[in-house]
Amino acid sequence: MTLGKKVRKAVIPAAGLGTRFLPATKAMPKEMLPVVDQPAIQYVVEEAVKAGLTDLLMITGRQKRALEDHFDRAPQLERTLELKGDSARLEAVQYASSLGPIHYVRQGEPLGLGHAVLCARQHVGDEPFAVLLGDDLIDERDELLSTMIDVQATTGGSVIALIEVDPAQISAYGCADITAVDGTDYFRVNRLVEKPAVEEAPSNLAVIGRYVLHPAVFDVLEHTKPGRGGEIQLTDALEVLATSGGEGGGVYGVVFRGRRYDTGDKLSYLKAVISIASERVDFGEELKSWMKDFIK
């Protein structure tokens, strides 16, 4: 039985090619694109740590070595900063390497998000776990992951994060059909559809890159055939769990209404940079003043 087991592991898929940001991502992982002065992936790792997750596994691929280097110690750089008396930058560099432990597994082939999650099976074992996609940045002031962990502990199933989108845009997302659960703030997921046609979508509720999953998902993924795009879709596996009984059955949704940025999209990435930069103590006010003049 996994009901009651505490979620302590996070899986962070980071094997994508980042083609939407070419040529910037030709030789640099998309997850290392800077959001102000730290890479996008660090915000995701920080979110996992803040939610109390203590064992992190990153699913990587070729040309992703920079991810490991970023979260590793850099003795020569640290020594140089120490000799210069640059304590602020030294602290920032050391902080990134203190977020661990972070483990790494290669996906090998780009067979989809479902396959990437399946690569984590041996590490995760028989316990519930979180999945955080590196493309999604959730504002640190908005609770999401900790709420999802609580719902998983209550229900014993799997939990997905949902946002309301313009119905005309739903074909870019996985889409959920839900039913309210009396006396709670979460919903029962009846059905999931990966990137439905607008006229066939059961709702305007889109699945975003935060999941808290029961380990039963691994058995389902083992038998999930390639779906949309010729890839093994996590959505397809969750669709099976949503309608199954027994241990690990049931999928639940938490509707998120906070601040979220898709750093895999150029415009949303720029919004993330501007939003986070404008709130910085060291130059936020100066930036906002410049933006007002620029808009004029």
In short:
This protein has helices at residues 40-50, 65-70, 75-84, 87-97, 113-118, 121-124, 145-155, 216-222, 234-242, 266-278, 284-295; strands at 9-13, 34-35, 38-39, 55-60, 102-106, 129-132, 136-138, 158-164, 174-180, 187-194, 205-213, 251-255, 260-262.
Per-chain topology:
Elements: E1 9-13, E2 34-35, E3 38-39, H1 40-50, E4 55-60, H2 65-70, H3 75-84, H4 87-97, E5 102-106, H5 113-118, H6 121-124, E6 129-132, E7 136-138, H7 145-155, E8 158-164, E9 174-180, E10 187-194, E11 205-213, H8 216-222, H9 234-242, E12 251-255, E13 260-262, H10 266-278, H11 284-295
Helix pairs in contact: 3-4, 8-9
Domain Nucleotidyl transferase: 9-275
Catalytic activity: alpha-D-glucose 1-phosphate + UTP + H(+) = UDP-alpha-D-glucose + diphosphate
Protein name: UTP--glucose-1-phosphate uridylyltransferase
Question: Roughly what percent helix?
Answer: 25-40%
Please state the overall shape, judged from the principal axes of the Cα atoms.
globular
Helix-strand pattern = EEEHEHHHEHHEEHEEEEHHEEHH
Give the strand content: 15-25%
CATH class: Alpha Beta
Strand order of the largest sheet: 5-4-1-6-11-8-12-10-9
Q: Determine the CATH superfamily.
A: Spore Coat Polysaccharide Biosynthesis Protein SpsA, Chain A
Family: Belongs to the UDPGP type 2 family.
Protein name: UTP--glucose-1-phosphate uridylyltransferase
Pfam families: NTP_transferase
EC number: 2.7.7.9
